[in-house]
Amino acid sequence: MLKKYTLGVMFCSGLLFGSSQLLAAPTAVMLGDSCAGCHGTDGASVGPASPSIAGLSEIYFTDTMMAFKNGDRPGTIMGRIAKGYTEEEIKLMAGFFASKPITITQQKLDATKVSAGEKLYTKNCSKCHDENGSLADDDAGILASQWLPYMEYSMVDFKAGTTEMPKKMKKKVNALSDAEIGSLLHYFASQQ
Amino acid sequence: MSKINRRSFIKIAGGATAVGAIGFPVIAAAGGKKQVVIVGGGTAGATAAKYIRRADASVEVTLIEPNKHYYTCYLSNEVLGGNRELDSLKFGYDGLRKHGVTVVHDLVTAIDAKGRKVTTKGGKSFSYDRCIVAPGISFRDDIEGYDAAAAEKFPHAWKAGPQTALLRKQLEAMPDGGTVVIAPPPNPFRCPPGPYERACQIAHYLKNHKPKSKILILDKKDKFSKMGLFTQAWERHYPGMIEWKKAADTGGGIMRVDAKAGTVSTDFDDMKVAVANIIPAQKAGTIAETAGLTNDTGWCPVTGKTFESTIHKGIHVIGDAAIQKPLPKSGYAANSEAKVVAAAVVDLVNGREPGTPSWVNTCYSVVAPDDGISVAMVYNLVDGKVAKVKGSGGLTPMDSSPADRKREVQYAYSWFNNITDDIFN
Fold first, then answer.
1. Which of B105, B219, B294, B409 has CA atoms 20 to 30 A from the CA of B241?
2. Is there a contact between B400 and A46 if contact means CB atoms under 8 Å apart?
3. Which residues of chain A have pLDDT under 50?
4. ipTM of this predicted complex?
5. Which of B414, B415, B417, B421 to mutate to test the interface with A (most CBs of A within 10 A)?
6. Per-residue pLDDT tens for B296-317?
7. CB B401 within 8 A of CB B373
8. What is the distance in angstroms between the Cα of B398 and the nearest Cα belonging to chain A?
């Protein structure tokens, strides 16, 4: 009697375990499509502030999402959302967005700032943000054609110290004025 | 083979494999294209149409929607506040046609679940392998005297378009010092934070143009979505202007209206006010009821995994009309549900078992020009039901900085631009 009972319990818990714990992860497309409401179809944001996430390197995407998930990077809403995904799911999303072409935006920009930014870029940023910030392999985000407000928010957070800068970047950024940083961002945003 | 038409072939194939262990008939690939008919071209229906075509361009998708244009309910409160033109909420269907969706402007009057056929007012009929029903909401008769004529006097503005324009016009015409009544509906209803964001937006207009005016919210509930954040916003931006009365304080909110006399009434008071925004209780859109897809709650019961109706096989119900708790009746949830169901329907018509779903919701409210708040949540499937992913989501913190609140407004506008582009373009 006792034996039967034990077997029954094992069988039932096995079923429960099977239905709630052993579901395969959603596909990369299922996960990636769910981000479109804020980041645009295939991660190509139409703006004005949500960043495009298409074409980001898998490493950068995963690191950024894990930082949001762990509370290491501030955000208005991304931390709350990132906490809903496992590392495995985040990696699947990373693969999905890495396979998409980077987004070309048309933004209202200041031509004087763009041209001043070009010179500053070559001198200060080009080593790590190669090809005008369009190279995913840098694992440094895609800055080329990125939405200006998003880059401005990011720089505010970097300067406030709420988001940590890599050492080299910190040195460069601290040596630049706010106006110079503004020009740089206009230059990145202007890339077509 | 040539003597077996496609329909009987499916019956035979379906019969032969029975319903199987995985719970749906495996339909062998038959000749002819797979047909999906979508009823309703709002957020859920239009998203599903586009995403089915993106996943499998061999599936023929017909979307049936009576209106040539759709006005989003989301951000329509900004029209009332005066910071947005109604036209910015207007979307057409050419984008879907570009994806190869057949868009038919007609009203669906019947769905034959057994015969797998949809019939329209225009006398057309459409056969389907799978049908997706996304009819949004309709109103219940919970407020005595609130008929079509009364809605012209006391607009609900809960389906955006002419009703939104009418309410805005009434606000523009009202005298300074008047009272605006907002009567939010009982749960469940479309856009749970909507009435309270509306109070903010109307207050924003009144503060700048008619500062002696007041807003009186006579609720059918004793609490509401984002309550702490809204209460904070009312005190912060519109002190003394907005009064909220819970149902228990008024014997259940607005119970009667008299369009001719121009009065709105609780069980205690008959009031003549400058503007009354009466939002009745809600249920699934009319066709859901006609097609027998609703239960006694007035909404449509569905499975968690594929949102297939638990009443009629082969029909999936998505968006506000479905019983999709804990997913809310929001635009983002409708868009998210539509994508999950689009993927499932593509799998089902191709004889594959649908994959593991994942849903997300984000809902912004603009409470002042530079003050935005949000709620978010990620959902997964647990034991066949939609569940909140533990530890995820939640509200904007009560103590978030003014800079963050300003960013949330910009992210709200980005959300609007991106989601509407994702749906209609």
1. B409
2. no
3. 1-20
4. 0.90
5. B414
6. 999 999 999 999 999 999 999 9
7. no
8. 12
